[in-house]
Write a structure and sequence with these properties.
heterodimer, A: alpha+beta, seven-stranded mixed β-sheet, five-stranded antiparallel β-sheet, 26 strands, elongated, B: 63% helix, globular
Chain lengths: 697, 447
C-alpha cells in the first residue's frame, strides 16, 4: 500500500505524460494537417512522375516487308544520386566503365534528385562493367530502343527516333502519328532505386502501341543506289550525290538516296554535320540542261514546236543584250530533236521564245516547279521559280535551259515521271500502307499537301518527248554511257555551273542525269546528281554511268523484260550469245577500262546464261515476267541449275542472269563482280549466292 | 457537497479511487477493497491492439525491403509472427506468475543483465557504427532490452525495501544512482544514447515517486547536464551534425538529416486520413529503417493523423491503466514496479514518436510493441504481462521460493478446474464469466 503523496506524485507523472502526449499530438497535427500539403509535395518530388510508357513503336517496312526500323531492348544505366553521395570515387569509376567524361558525370551525380540517367542505350559490355562495380543505387534497366537493322541503308529517308522513342528525322518524324501510337503517359511512382511502379495497374500496352508503316521504297534498290552513289562520290572526289528512283505509273518513290548519309543507330552529331539531310527534298539548285525537257514539252504541247522545225544554233554564240549565250558544242542549223540531243542552249532559247514566257511559266508550274511536291517529309523546299513579271530577256533565256531557277531532285523526278507516264503528273509518294496492331492494313492517303494527280501535257507530246530523249543515249548523244543493253533509255544530261557567292564558278559543277527506262514502256525514272565532281564534271561522264549501274540492277531485280524492239534487233544478228558479244564493244565504249579478260568472262557468262535461256530472246511473244517464269517452269524441271561465273558482270547483269536461273543474289559493294560464294557450278534452285562487287577498272 | 469541500478533501476523494479496491468509474467511490478481478482489460486491450497494428504495419513498411534483401515479401511478417508467438507465451507466463517472484531474483537478474551488456561491447559485431547486438547465426539479441526490465525491477525492489530511508542520500539515493550510472555508461559505450536517457529518466521518475528529496534529483540533473551536453553536442561531430539537422531538417535533408527529412515528408504526406493501408510510398527505399525505429512514419503516411493519434491514445491508455495498477497494487514493490514499467513504455513511445515527428533529436529507440525487432517485442510483452499481473491485485501466494512457486504454477495449470481460485484468465472478454464459479470446485471428471 502506498501513501497519499506517493499516489499524488504518480498522478503528477501521469499529468506530465499527458502534457507530453499533447505536444506530440500537436506536432503530428502540425505536420499532417497544417504543413501536410507542403510536405506531400516534397514527398511527391521524390517519386511521382509521369511515367512515359515507351510504347512499342511501330516498325517501318520497305515495300516488300523488309524491316527498315524495328524496336529492340537496350540496357540503360541510371542511379539514385543520393545513394552515391557517400562514395567519392563513384563518378570516376562509373565514367571509366562507360568511357564518359568524369567531370560531366560528377555534375549529374551531385544533383539533389533521387533519380538521374547516367547513360542510355549502353553496350552489353558496358552494362557488364557497370554491374561489376557493384555501386549502390546504380541500376541497369532494359528499355525499348529503336534499332535500324541495315544501319546506313535508307537512313536519310527513314531518319531516326530519339532515345525517348519520338521520331526526330525523316519518316520517323513525318509518320510519327502512326508510329508512336496513342497517348501512353501514365501517372506513376518510382521507388528510391528508380524502378517504375504503376499506380493503377498495368496500362494496356497494346492499345498504346504504334502502327507499322510500309514505305514505297525498296530495300534492294535503295542499297544499289546508295552503293552506286558512294562509288561515284569516291571516284569523282565529289562533295555529295543524290538520287531518286520513281515508278512513273504510280508516283511511288522506289529509292531516295543521299550521300553523305549516316548510321541512325548512332546518330551522334549527324544532324550537326548535315548527314541526316534527305537531299532529294532539302537541296535546291540550278538544274541546268535537264530542264530543257520541260521547255520542249511545253512547246510541243502548245503547238509552237514541231518535230520538223529547224533552228539555227549560231555556232555557239547568241548575244542577248550585253550577254552572250553559248553552247559547249558549237553547231549550225539543227532539227528540233537534235537541238535536244546535243543540248543546245541557243536552240532551246529560240524554242522558248517562240513559246512565250507566260506559257513556259505555266508549263513549269504544271510540272510542279516552284512548289513542294508534298511528299510529306519535313524540310522539303519549294525551289525558286520567280514570277513571270520578273523575267528579263536574259532570265527568260536562262530559265529555258535550266539556269536562274532552283529545283529539288524530287521535283525533277516527278516532272520526268509525268512525261514518262504519258503526260500525267503523279504526286510522288513514300508511305504506302499502315498496318494496324490487329494485322489489318490500310492504304495511306496522300499527304494533304501533295499536288493532285493531273494531266500536264498530252499523251502524244509525252511520247514525242520520250522519242527525242532516247536520242540522248544513242550514238552521238551526250549520254551514250547511260545506254543499257537491251533496254532503250530516254534521258537528259545536265551540267550546271554552281553559283558561288553570286557568280558562276568554273570549279563548281553539278553533274546530273535523268533517265526513263525502258523508254517504250517506262517503268523507272531515275535522277542522279553528283555535287561538285572534280575534275570531270560533264553529266554524261559523271552522272550517266551511275544511272546505268543503278538502272541495270533495278531492271534485273524487277524482272523488266528487255524491249522487243531491241531484242528483235539482236535476233537479226543471229544467236543471242552473239548479240551479247556484239553488244560488248558498245559497252566498252561507255565503260572505259573494261579489260579484255573481263569482257571475255562476261561474254562467257552471257553465253552460259543464254544457253539456258535462249527462249527469252528468241521467243516472239515473250513480253512479260510471267512469260519468263512460265518458260522457266516448263523448260527446266530439274531442281539444280548451272551457275556461271559472274566475274566482270555488273550488278544488273548478275541479277538478270540469276533471276532467270532462279537464284537469289546477295550483293555486296558496287561496281563489277569479283567474287561469288558459292562458286560457279551446280546449285539448287532458289539458293542464295553472295556476290562481291568492286568499282570497275 | 463537493462544492463546499476543501481542495485537500476533494483531491483525497478523487485519489481515493486510486486506492486498492477503488472503483474504476468516476462518480462511484467504493473504499472497500474488492476481491481480485483479474488483469486490467483495458491495459491488455491496449497492448494487444498495438501488437496487432504492429504486425500489419511492419509487413506494410518492410515488405519491399524484405523482397529486395531477402527475396521474400513476407520475410518480416513471418519472423514477426514468430516473435509475437514467443512474446505472447512470455506475456501469459508473466501474467500468471505472481510478480513477487521477481523480487527474489532481482540481483542475479541485474548482474546477469549487466554482464550481458558489458559482454556485447566485446563480443558483439559492429553494425552501422554501433555494438548493440549478439549474433547467433541468423538470430540476433539485444541485451539492452532485458536490461530495461532488470534495472526497473532493481530500483523498485530497492526503493520498496528502503521505505522510510528513501530520503537518505547514501541509502535511498546513491545506490540506485550508481547502478543506473553504470548501466547508462555501458549503453553510452555502445553507443545507445536513447536507451541510456530513457533508463535514466525511468530511474529518476521512480526516485521521484518514492519520495526522494527533490533537491537530490535536481542535483543529479545538474551533474548530468554538463556530461550530457558534452556527449550530445560537443561529442562526436556526427552527433553535432545530427543535432543541427534536427534543428533544421530541410537544410540537411541531403546528408545527415536525410532520414529525419524523409520521415517528416512521409508523415506529412499522410494528411488526416492517410494514403490508405499499404499505399505508402516512402517505404520504397526513400525512408531507411521504415519497419524498425521509423515505423511510425509509415503509419503516419498510410493511416494519417488518425493513425498517429490512435497510437498515441493507446500508449496513454497503457500509461493510465499502468499507473492505476501502481496506485492500487497490494504492496509498495508492486506499485513501484508497475509505475516503472508503465513509465518505461510511455517514455520509449513518446521519445520514439518525438524523434519520428522531428520534435527530438534522432535517437535509435524502437516503438514498443510495434517496431520490428524480436528482443524488444518479447521483452515488452513480458513486461506487459508483469504489469497485467500487478493490475490483477491477487493476494500474495505466500513465501515460496521461485522454483517451487513455478512448480506450483505448473501443478495449478494441470488441475486448473480443481483450483480455479489460483487461475488467472488472460482473455479479457472471458474472465468475468469464468471467475464466477469460484465457489464451485467441481472436478472436471464429474462434469
Amino acid at each position: 500500500m502506498i501513501g497519499f503523496w506517493t499516489r499524488f506524485r504518480i498522478v503528477l507523472c501521469g499529468l506530465a505524460f499527458a502534457a507530453l502526449a499533447v505536444l506530440i499530438g500537436r506536432r503530428a497535427y502540425d505536420l499532417q494537417v497544417r504543413q501536410g500539403d507542403k510536405l506531400r509535395s516534397w514527398a511527391e518530388d521524390n517519386y511521382l512522375k509521369e511515367i512515359e510508357l515507351a510504347p512499342q513503336r511501330g516498325r517501318i517496312f520497305d515495300r516488300n516487308g523488309k524491316e527498315l526500323a524495328s524496336t529492340a531492348q537496350f540496357d540503360s544505366v541510371f542511379c539514385n544520386p543520393r545513394q552515391l553521395a557517400g562514395i567519392p570515387d563513384a563518378p570516376r569509376r562509373l565514367a571509366k566503365a562507360l568511357s564518359m567524361d568524369a567531370r560531366e558525370l560528377k555534375k549529374t551525380l551531385t544533383s539533389r534528385r533521387a533519380f538521374a540517367w547516367i547513360r542510355r542505350k549502353v553496350t552489353p559490355q558496358e552494362a557488364a562493367a557497370v554491374k561489376a562495380l557493384g555501386l549502390p543505387g546504380v541500376v541497369i534497366k532494359k528499355e525499348p530502343g529503336r534499332f535500324y537493322p541495315f544501319n546506313e541503308l535508307a537512313s536519310t529517308v527513314v531518319g531516326h527516333a530519339g532515345i525517348d522513342g519520338k521520331g526526330l528525322e525523316g519518316v520517323e518524324l513525318a509518320f510519327e502519328k502512326y508510329l508512336h501510337g496513342a497517348g501512353s503517359q501514365v501517372l506513376g511512382i518510382r521507388d528510391a532505386l528508380g524502378r517504375d511502379l504503376l499506380m493503377d495497374g498495368l496500362a494496356d500496352q497494346s492499345a498504346a502501341a504504334g502502327k507499322d508503316v510500309v514505305l514505297s521504297v525498296d530495300k534492294f534498290l535503295t542499297y544499289t543506289t546508295e552503293q552506286a552513289l558512294l562509288a561515284a562520290v569516291h571516284k569523282h572526289n565529289a562533295k555529295g550525290a543524290v538520287s531518286v528512283m520513281m515508278d512513273p505509273r504510280t508516283g511511288e518513290v522506289l529509292a531516295m538516296a543521299s550521300v553523305p548519309s549516316y548510321n541512325p543507330n548512332e546518330p551522334g552529331d549527324a544532324v550537326g554535320r548535315g548527314a541526316t539531310k534527305n537531299r532529294a527534298i532539302t537541296d535546291q539548285f540550278e538544274p541546268g540542261s535537264i530542264m530543257k525537257a520541260f521547255t520542249f514539252a511545253a512547246a510541243f504541247d502548245a503547238g509552237t514546236l514541231h518535230l520538223t522545225d529547224w533552228f539555227d544554233c549560231m555556232w555557239g554564240r547568241m548575244p542577248i543584250g550585253k550577254v552572250t549565250i553559248r553552247d559547249s558544242h558549237p553547231l549550225g542549223t539543227l532539227i528540233a530533236a537534235d537541238v535536244f540531243k546535243h543540248s543546245s542552249n541557243i536552240g532551246t532559247t529560240k524554242i522558248a521564245r517562240r513559246l512565250g514566257r507566260e506559257k513556259l511559266y505555266d508549263a513549269l508550274t504544271r510540272f510542279g516547279f516552284g512548289h513542294k511536291t508534298g511528299i510529306g517529309l519535313g524540310g522539303e523546299l519549294n525551289g525558286i521559280l520567280h514570277p513571270v513579271a520578273k523575267w528579263g530577256e536574259v532570265a527568260f533565256a536562262n530559265i529555258s535551259f535550266g539556269q536562274g531557277l532552283t529545283v529539288t531532285p524530287l521535283q525533277i523526278a516527278a516532272g520526268y515521271a509525268a512525261i514518262a507516264a504519258g503526260g500525267v503528273y503523279h504526286p510522288p509518294r513514300l508511305g504506302l500502307r499502315v498496318i494496324h496492331q490487329d494485322g489489318h492494313s490500310e492504304a495511306l492517303p496522300l499527304p494533304p499537301a501533295a499536288r493532285p494527280e493531273q494531266r500536264v501535257i498530252s499523251e502524244s507530246v509525252a511520247h514525242t518527248m520520250l522519242d527525242i530523249m532516247k536520242g540522248v543515249t544513242e550514238k552521238g548523244g551526250t549520254a551514250t554511257r547511260a545506254a543499257i543493253d537491251g533496254y532503250p533509255v530516254a534521258g537528259k544530261t545536265g551540267t550546271g555551273q554552281k553559283a558561288v557567292n553570286g557568280h558562276y564558278n568554273d570549279a563548281y559543277w553539278l553533274s546530273s542525269f535523268v533517265g526513263v527506262v525502258p523508254a517504250d514502256n517506262p517503268r523507272l525514272v531515275i535522277v542522279v546528281m553528283v555535287d561538285e565532281p572534280k575534275p570531270d564534271h560533264l553529266g554524261g561522264l559523271v552522272a550517266a554511268p551511275v544511272f546505268k549501274e543503278i538502272a541495270e540492277a533495278a531492271l534485273g531485280y524487277l524482272g523488266v523484260p528487255p524491249s522487243e524492239a531491241m531484242a528483235s534487233k539482236k535476233k537479226d544478228k543471229g544467236l543471242a550469245a552473239d548479240a551479247k558479244v556484239a553488244a560488248l564493244p558498245a559497252d566498252r565504249e561507255s565503260a572505259e577500262g573494261l579489260g579484255s579478260d573481263v569482257a571475255l568472262a562476261q561474254a562467257q557468262a552471257a553465253a552460259d546464261a543464254d544457253g539456258q535461256d535462249v527462249p527469252i530472246i528468241d521467243g516472239e511473244d515473250v513480253d512479260g515476267a510471267e512469260g519468263v517464269a512460265a518458260t522457266d517452269r516448263s523448260d527446266a524441271p530439274s531442281d539444280l541449275v548451272n551457275v556461271p561465273s559472274f566475274k566482270g558482270l555488273s550488278i544488273g547483269q548478275v541479277i538478270g542472269v540469276a533471276r532467270r536461273l532462279g537464284l537469289e543474289v546477295a550483293p555486296e559493294g558496287s561496281g563489277l563482280a569479283v567474287a561469288q560464294a558459292p562458286g560457279p557450278g551446280s546449285l539448287p534452285r532458289g539458293s542464295i549466292c553472295r556476290v562481291t562487287f568492286r568499282p570497275g577498272g | 457537497m463537493i462544492a463546499t469541500a476543501g481542495l485537500r478533501e476533494r483531491v483525497t476523494d478523487w485519489m481515493g479511487r486510486l486506492r486498492p479496491g477503488g472503483a474504476g468509474r468516476v462518480g462511484v467511490s467504493l473504499r472497500v477493497p474488492r476481491p481480485s478481478t483479474g488483469p486490467d482489460r483495458l491495459l491488455c486491450g491496449a497492448v494487444f491492439g498495438l501488437i496487432a497494428l504492429g504486425i500489419v504495419m511492419v509487413f506494410s513498411a518492410g515488405a519491399a525491403f524484405a523482397a529486395k534483401h531477402y527475396g521474400d515479401w513476407t520475410f518480416f511478417l513471418k519472423r514477426e509472427a514468430v516473435y509475437v508467438v514467443i512474446g505472447l507465451v512470455a506475456f501469459t507466463f508473466a501474467a500468471r506468475t505472481d510478480y513477487s517472484v521477481y523480487r527474489r531474483i532481482t540481483y542475479p537478474l541485474l548482474f546477469f543483465s549487466i554482464a550481458l551488456l558489458a559482454g556485447v561491447l566485446v563480443l558483439g559485431p559492429r553494425v552501422n557504427g554501433a555494438v548493440r547486438w549478439y549474433r547467433f547465426g541468423g538470430l540476433s539479441f539485444q541485451p539492452c532490452e532485458p536490461m530495461k526490465f532488470s534495472l526497473t525491477l532493481y530500483v523498485s525492489v530497492l526503493l520498496a525495501r528502503k521505505a522510510d530511508q528513501v530520503r537518505d542520500f547514501s541509502i535511498g539515493f546513491l545506490p540506485p544512482l550508481v547502478i543506473t550510472g553504470v548501466v547508462m555508461g555501458l549503453l553510452i559505450l555502445q553507443p545507445d544514447l536513447g536507451t541510456a536517457v530513457v533508463i535514466g529518466a525511468v530511474t529518476m521518475a521512480l526516485l521521484f515517486v518514492a519520495g526522494t528529496r527533490t533537491s537530490f534529483i535536481l542535483m543529479a540533473l545538474l551533474v548530468a547536464a554538463p556530461i550530457g551536453w558534452k556527449f550530445l553536442v560537443m561529442g562526436k561531430s556526427f552527433r553535432q551534425q545530427r543535432l543541427l539537422a534536427f534543428l533544421n531538417p530541410l537544410e540537411f535533408r541531403q546528408n545527415v538529416g536525410y532520414q529525419l527529412w524523409e520521415s517528416l515528408i512521409s508523415v506529412g504526406s499522410g494528411g488526416v486520413w492517410g494514403r490508405g493501408l499499404g499505399e505508402g510510398r516512402q517505404k520504397l527505399f526513400y525512408l531507411p529503417e521504415a519497419h524498425t525505429d521509423f515505423v511510425l512514419s509509415i503509419i503516419g503516411e498510410e493511416l494519417g493523423l488518425v493513425g498517429v493519434l490512435s497510437i498515441l491514445a493507446a500508449f496513454l491508455v497503457l500509461i493510465w491503466r499502468g499507473y492505476l495498477a501502481a496506485a492500487r497494487a497490494r504492496d509498495v514493490f508492486g506499485s513501484y514496479l508497475a509505475f516503472g514499467l508503465s513509465s518505461l513504455f510511455g517514455l520509449q513511445a513518446l521519445v520514439n514518436m518525438g524523434v519520428v515527428l522531428g520534435s527530438l533529436p534522432t535517437k535509435g529507440i524502437p516503438l514498443p510493441f510495434i517496431s520490428y525487432g524480436g528482443s524488444s517485442l518479447v521483452v515488452s510483452l513480458f513486461m506487459a504481462g508483469v504489469l497485467a499481473n500487478i493490475s490483477a491485485r491477487k493476494p500474495e501466494p505466500g513465501a515460496t521460493p521461485f522454483f517451487s512457486a513455478f512448480r506450483q504454477r505448473v501443478a495449478a495449470g494441470r488441475n486448473k478446474r480443481a483450483e480455479p481460485g489460483v487461475r488467472v484468465v488472460v482473455e479479457t472478454g472471458a474472465h468475468r464469466r469464468r471467475s464466477a464459479p469460484v465457489a464451485d470446485p467441481s472436478p472436471p471428471s464429474e462434469s
